[in-house]
Design a protein that fits this description.
The structure is a single chain. Helices cover 47% and strands 0% of the residues. The protein is mostly helical. The chain has one domain. The longest helix has 16 residues, at 2-17. It is globular. 15% of the residues are buried.
């Protein structure tokens, strides 16, 4: 009987260990560590004040995408070079916001830090 209990305990331990999330790129907790830059607290207002005029729910002025939601902005950082586009120098034809002027470096640095901190929403 003791052997059966030991086997059952061992089996349960192995089973539970196999259920862990080993993908470190996906945070287990969607809330950012204290002091981190987050979308809701820091980045949303930057996007709203500088990008939404063209990147609205229905994009205008030739904008190819909407930047209204957290998911859309995160996707733009990860797959559409948003940080590169806002970091270009005045006069570059692909600088965003379109036609410039370039956002202040301090503002760009907040978006860069958001990416570095893990692109947390809140």
């Amino acid at each position: 009987m003791k052997l059966q209990k030991a086997f059952a305990l061992l089996s349960a331990t192995i089973f539970l260990a196999g259920c862990s999330n080993d993908d470190s790129s996906t945070p287990m907790n969607s809330t950012a560590p204290v002091g981190s830059v987050t979308y809701n607290k820091d980045v949303k207002s930057i996007i709203d004040n500088n990008c939404i005029v063209c990147h609205a729910a229905v994009p205008t002025n030739g904008a190819p995408i909407s930047l209204v939601t957290y998911a859309q902005v995160k996707e733009a950082v990860l797959k559409r070079s948003l940080i590169i586009r806002i970091s270009l120098e005045n006069g570059n034809s692909v600088l965003m916001p379109k036609g410039g002027p370039r956002m202040p470096q301090e503002t760009i640095d907040i978006v860069k830090q958001w990416e570095k901190d893990g692109l947390f929403e809140k």
